[in-house]
Every structure is written in structure tokens, then in C-alpha cells.
Amino acid sequence: MATEPTGATEAAGMPQLEFSTFPNQIFWLVITLVVIYFVLSRIALPRISAVLAERQGTITNDIAAAEDLKQKAVDAEEAYNKALIDARAEANEIVESAKAEIKADLNKAIAVADAEIAAKSAESEKVIAGIRDSAADSAAEVARDIAKDIVAAVSPGKIDARSVTAAVNAKLKG
Amino acid sequence: MADEAKGAEEGGLVFQPMDQFIVKPLIGDGPVGMFTITNVTLWMALCVLCIIGLLVLGTSRRAIVPSRTQSVAELAYGFIYKMVEDVSGKDGVRYFPYIMTLFMFIVFSNFLGLLPMAFTTTSHIAVTAVLAMGVFLTVTILGFVKHGFGFLSVFWISSAPLVLRPVLALIEVISYFVRPLSHSIRLAGNMMAGHAVIKVFAAFAAVLAISPFSILAITAIYALEVLVSFIQAYVFAILTCVYLKDALHPHH
Fold first, then answer.
1. Where are the alpha helices (DSSP H) in chain A?
2. In 3-state terms, chain B is what percent helix, strand and coil (to 5)?
3. A33 neighbourhood in chain B, CB within 8 Å
């Protein structure tokens, strides 16, 4: 600048109006703009718009997928509840039928047992009756024997054994 | 350097707020020809590199869950895309790369210009005028190609009373041709003014008594400039969309 005094004084006014520099500025400006335009329209803008579109697509897909999964979850829950209700009903049914079956079995068993008990008690009664009879017979026998012995001791050889027995029998019956 | 030395010798404050805008060759001191590699070249190249870094390298992984850089790139894309769609309509989306180019170039040039010692390409009327004329010519040609002479109905406001229509048409024509001028000067003016003001305050910082105030002021204006850098890029882009809408749908 010091070596160009005229340029410096002019520039001190307004460098913007230094018309000699206009071609230079315009030349470089046009080159700059053309470069920027090509960089933007060929590389940058398509790329950014692709990225934005891709992101939009991803978001849309994700939302759809989420919606889908949510629907699936709801369906699954419904199926689960239905299964639960079914299972509960089935269980109740099984319980009912088991109960009825057990009752039937029980009744049958009770009947069988009752019959058995009746039979056994009848048998026992018979046995008891038998025992009672034999006990009475034994007692009669013992009475006869003792009577014979007593009679023999009191008046030996005078009384017939048969008449003693008959007397005892008559006494026992009476 | 030489200027500052000269100023110091004179013993006063060094006010060279416009020095930062001088277009000079990057290597050596020769004249600035059309193809000379100048600071304009350097900062425009940096701008291109930043855009590539953000929009190409930043998105190179094409992640579904974006990294920070990719998020910013997508944010910028979405921001401009929505703006084009909202303002210009569905058929304006075809011109989205064009508007994105303008926006990215302006926003990065503005932000890069805020770096200390940087050169702000968008503070030059030559640059913004080319941008604005580009928009103006594109939109005008597009209008005539799409609608033929029907495009002229953009000046003929059919909703206004018949008596007023010629007057309104005149105003509309004037405003239409003033568009590129306001479009370009708005951007360049904002950039230039902000940077010049920062430089003026920076010069005051050399005076001990007022330097704290000066540094505070620089900080405040710097913050404002960050805002302005973005807003101007946004305004440029949205006005382009509005003009585009006029070309695509001239019948209001």
C-alpha cells in the first residue's frame, strides 16, 4: 500500500467503489457460486434429502412395527385370558365330575360295606347262637354228670343213670 | 502496516476503518487484474471449504441418528427448504438448490468476515450486486418463460379499483426495477457498516481512558453483527423466494 500511494488514497475513501477491482471480485464470485451450486446440487442436497427421507421412513416403519407389536401383545393377552377362563371352566368340570365319581364310588363302597357288615353280623349271630347252644348243651351235660355223681354219692347203685339224666333234662327245660 | 506507522508518526488516532475492505493481491503488491489471486479469492475459497465441510463432510456418514455437524447441516437444509416451500409454493421447490447456494454463500461469507483480520466478501457492492442481479434476471426471465406476456400482470393489480390500476402499475414497475438495487445494497451496507463501526471502536481502544468502554462496545456490536450476519443472509434468501413466487404466480 505504501508503494502505491494513489491506490491507498483512493481506498481510504471507499474500497467498495474501487471499480478496478470489480472484474476480479465478480470473476471469483461466479466461480465460487458455480462450485457451491454444483457441490450442493450434485452431492450435499441429494444426500441430506435421502438421509431425511430414510429417517422418516425408519420412523414410520418403527411406529408401524410398534403398533403391530402392541396389537400382538393385546391379542396375546386376550388369548391368555381366554385360555385362563377355559382352563378354569375345564378344571371346574373335572372337579365336578371327580366329585360325582367319588360320590358314586363312595356310595357303592358304602353299600358293599353295609352288605358285608350285614352278612358278617348275621354270620356272627349264627356263630353266637351256635356258641350259646353248645354252651347250654355243655351246661346240661355238666349238670347231668354232676347230678349223676351227686346221686351216686348220696345213694350208690340204687338209681339208674338214665332216669337221672331225664330228670336233669326235665329240670333244665323247665 | 505502513499506514499505521504513518498514522502513529502523525501522533493522532489511527482511523482506517475502511482499510479492511481493500481488495489486494494475496502475494506481492501488483495491480488487481481480473484473474489475480486476491484476498477475495482466499475468503471465497474458505467459504466454499466451510460449506463443503458442513454439508458434504458433515453428512458423509449418512447417520440415521445424526452427529452434531450433520444435525446442523440438516437444520440448514430443512430451514431453507421449508422457507422455499412456504414462500414460493410447491413448484418453487425446483429452485431450492439455487436459493440454498445463495443462502449458504452469504451466511458463511458473513460469519467468516466476523473473524478478526478477515475480509468480508459480502461487504462489497460488486459481489452483492452480482448476486442481486442474478436473482433479478433469473426471476424476470423465468417469469416470461413460464407465463409469456402474462407475466406483466404482476404489475397490473386486478384487485384494486380500475382508476388506481395505472398508478399502481407505475409504482409496481418502479419497485420491480429497484428490487436488485435494494436487495444488494441492503446486504453490502449492513456488512460494511457493522465492520467499519467495529474498526472505529477498535481504534479508540488505543486510548487508555476510553479503552474499557471501547472494548465493551466492540463486544456488543460484535454480538449484534453475529445476529445481523444471519438475518441478512435470511432476508436475502427470503426475498429471493418472494421474487420467485412473483415469477411463478404473477396473478397475485
1. 5-13, 22-38, 45-154, 161-173
2. 75, 0, 25
3. 101, 105, 131, 134
What contacts B144, CB < 8 A, 6 or more positions away? B151
A36 vs B127: CB contact, 8 Å cut-off? no
CB-based burial, B80-112: b 16+ in 10 Å, e otherwise: bbebbeebbeeebeebbbbbbbbbbbbbbbbbb
**Which amino acid would we find at residue A36?**
I
Range of the domain at B37: 2-248
Instruction: Name the interface residues of A facing B (CB cutoff 8 Å).
Output: 1-4, 8, 11-18, 20-33, 35-37, 39-41, 43-45, 47-52, 54-55, 58
Q: Rounded CA gap, A171 and B23, in Å?
A: 170
B23, B123, B131: residue with CB nearest A24 = B23
Residue B25 pairs in a beta bridge with B38
Here the ipTM equals: 0.85
Measure in Å the smallest separation between the Cα of A65 and chain B Cα atoms: 17
Q: With an 8 Å Cβ cutoff, is B124 touching chain A?
A: yes
Please tell me if residue B48 touches chain A, with a CB cutoff of 8 Å.
yes
- Chain B CB contacts of A42 under 8 Å are none
Q: Domain total for chain B?
A: 1
Residues of B in contact with A52 (CB under 8 A): 74, 77-78
Q: What is the pLDDT along chain B (252 residues), one digit of tens a residue?
A: 444 444 444 445 666 777 788 888 888 777 887 788 888 899 999 999 999 999 999 888 888 888 899 999 999 999 999 999 999 988 889 999 999 999 999 999 999 999 888 889 999 999 999 999 999 999 999 999 988 888 888 888 788 888 888 888 899 899 999 999 999 999 999 999 988 888 888 888 887 788 888 889 899 999 999 999 999 999 999 999 999 998 888 876
